[in-house]
Amino acid sequence: MPRTEHRTIDFFAEDALPAPRTTPAEAEHIAAQNLGIAAHADSLGSQQDANFALRDGAGSVLAVLKIANPAFGPVEVEAQDAAADLVASAYPELRVATVLRHPDGTPRRTTVDTDNGLAVARLLRHLPGDALSGPRHLSPGTVAAMGTIAAKMSTALRDFRHPGLDRVLQWDPRHSDRVVAHLARHIDEPDRRTAVQDATAEAWARVQEVAAALPQQAVHLDLTDDNLIRRPGSRPPMPDGVIDFGDLTTSWAVGELAVSLSSMLHHDGVEPHHVLPAVRAFHAVRPLSAPEAEALWPLVVLRAAVLVVSGRQQAAVDTDNAYATGALDREWHVFEQAVRLPLPVMTRLITDAIDLAGVPVAADVPELPLLRGIATDGIAVLDLSPDSDSMDGGAWLDSGAEDAYAAAALTNGAVATATRYAQARLSGAPALSARSGATVPTGIDLRLGLAAVLQAPRAGEVLAAGDGTLEITHGAFVLTVSFPATAPAVAAGATVKAGDDLVHLAAGSRARLALRRSGSPEVPSLVRPEYAAGWLPLTADPAPLLGLPATDRTERADLLERRGAVFATVQEHYYASPPRIERGWLHFLLSTEGRSYLDIVNNVTPLGHAHPRVEQAVARQLRRLNTNSRFHYASVVEFTERLTALLPEPLDTVFLVNSGSEAVDLGLRLAIGASGRPDVVAVREAYHGWTYASDAVSTSLQDNPNALATRPRWVHTVDSPNSYRGRHRGTDAARYAPEAAAVIDGLAAAGHPAGAFVSETFYGNAGGVALPDGYLAEVYAAVRRHGGLAVADEVQVGYGRLGHWFWGFEQQQVVPDIVCVAKAMGNGHPLGAVITSRQVADRYREQGYFFSSTGGSPVSSVVGLTVLDTLRDEDLQGNAVRVGGHLKNRLRVLANRHPVIGTVHGSGLYLGLELVRDRTTLEPATEETAELCDRMLDLGVVVQPTGDHLNILKIKPPLCIDTTAADFFADTLDLALTQLGHAG
Questions:
Q1: pTM, whole model, 2 decimals?
Q2: So what's the pLDDT on residue 316?
């Protein structure tokens, strides 16, 4: 259709909008002859326009040549360029693809002839960096940044006016219903066509309910992953650039956000709840009104429907357009995700996320209890939450746990049992799953010890009645009762009054009670915690129908904030938004939402969380005695005897303390006191503790960025003997030992002989890196020949974790003078020890006396004995060999698939997976590692980074971990690395 200067597009007046068929050679000619730029043209994708990157002889992009669809007139292009300039001026931190201009300020723009008529061609600023398009998973920070950009765009364009905005576009959500009706015929599959039409009808009806209250303004309307450009070098990808104002028009302002949200839904691993950071970020910059929040997800569905029908049409009329045809599967996936949950659920989820959710509505108070003749005090309420004692001992893993709990209550005299509404059930949590389980109940499960009659709690209408099911109105709600295949006492369509019989249930029967708002979609009996805030507002607590109090759902959500207010912030917590963990079992951590996480970081609990032998031993001892070690009792003797029996001669004397920091501090004091020399040599990139002495010899830059510059004068450091990324690598790592010995010799020659050399015996803080063979033998010999002592820090790696060796120093075939140990000793109980010779221990008398109130207490000693017994009886050191070896092999295989894996360190169940950006330069993949840890958490695994560059996954799970769990970790790691774009 011929275009005039001021005429704008009306999509419904056009038969189709195929992109201009311009070849790269033609684009080069246009650029040179019409726009004054000689360059090589590379075609870029577009659905309705023709775009080319113009490169110089060196391949650098000079500009982007954009040839608009001939259906778009000059006034529309002028509006787009003016809007881009406005946004760039309003938010200088955003990079915007503005039109390039001549020295006199006029745009570098022209009109060219195409197969479909005259079209506007212009040069646009090229933004370095890739688009966010593609399947790569979008991390929460990226999603939030997309929401922020949408909000800034909305704010900048709020008062923008231009004749070129008066357009009728297929992408304008105000025309979504017409577009789908017009183009649905292009969907060949009848079932998909029907699904799109039905979803459109429902979403359009929802939007129309609030349409009059939706503000309208100029909108970019295409802030998708294709048009948001990542900041070069940003990791994870963070957008700061905006291109393609081609869909600029006037529409509902909230549509800006809806378009952006829809584009997130095709990315790997992204579910609807993953877009909420974008909603919050948008709302923080440009607050959404209540009507906009109500319209948002219906607009996402409408956008998805339009994408599907438009993509099918474009592929049909523009068969050579690889961009359009290649997007068809992605667009269908967007639609599937958009309609994955009912509209009311997603709307409530959104309003909850931005604090616009209303107060939950309770159902009407019943006139009579639903259970006739059963007193409230005869109903036992079952607590199936993670905080319940009924979940102790791993009961949550037993599929029959709920039945056993209910049966016990009935045996103990209850007439009936009832579960709690909206309280997450740990009994429904899958142990190993990359997807959270449906753990939040939307109703109540009832079990009867006696025969009972369910009666109408108030007048109502029977909506449905059949074997095993009954639906009856209850004020503004519908009461659903599910029960064994028994005919109810009422028929569908009947009207009942309070007290009328509904169904007769035999003793031992079960029934499920649920209340949902009239007109709401069907609600599952259990929902996933991520979506509970969307489902629960559609329901009400049935407990009052039984005469029971409703579940208290006013739990404070500010626990993390309260922690920050009273807990020193230097005591950090894992993750920016951590799950609340209140229970552990074996190698699992359990959240209050009923999510099970595989624990890959806890070397504090080698036996596994909540080991019954430890719990029973502690409880038994606490019932008897707990005092300090100056009293005379057997357990402290028995424990220290057992401990020294595990060590070679002459290590026969024990000091008991409470932590690894205390153990290292005391070990250094013993060495300095016995040697009479105050100087200490420590290894760089190590962490030993937080006390004055242990912190002084800690040189980890992550624990203290100024570690090397702030060391006391008595601390001297030697190179980190890291054979992978240290100064000497591979076989050259043999040079570390003589160089360290030379430092020690040099100190002695300078009149400052070292009183101690302290190091981990297996380089734990560096990610489980084995020391070079013979390293400790040569360094220990050097310090000893000058009268110093060798202090071995076994806090992290000792107690069988390495598998082949109980102590790390055994791998080096040396015997230290002093051994410091903690962590694993108490399986979570504060317990540490220093073991040395009688000769060294006795020298401490010259410094005074030693006393620790709880170090070596009866409880601590009993815990220590129990841990040693269990390590032996359950062969956990052997398990470290078997499972650790299997896991290390799995991780090595993953390295073949993911170039970001540089190497796999470690032994047994102290492993380290080092991530690098380049296997030659070994540039640390620090940000990638952090992103990976966050993604792993979302997939059900707790794992954290370590090392000076925080680019190593520390893999040190409880020693009870089994092969199934190890395989789950490896499989999940593979999945996460793939989703994050690291597959080779």
A1: 0.95
A2: 87
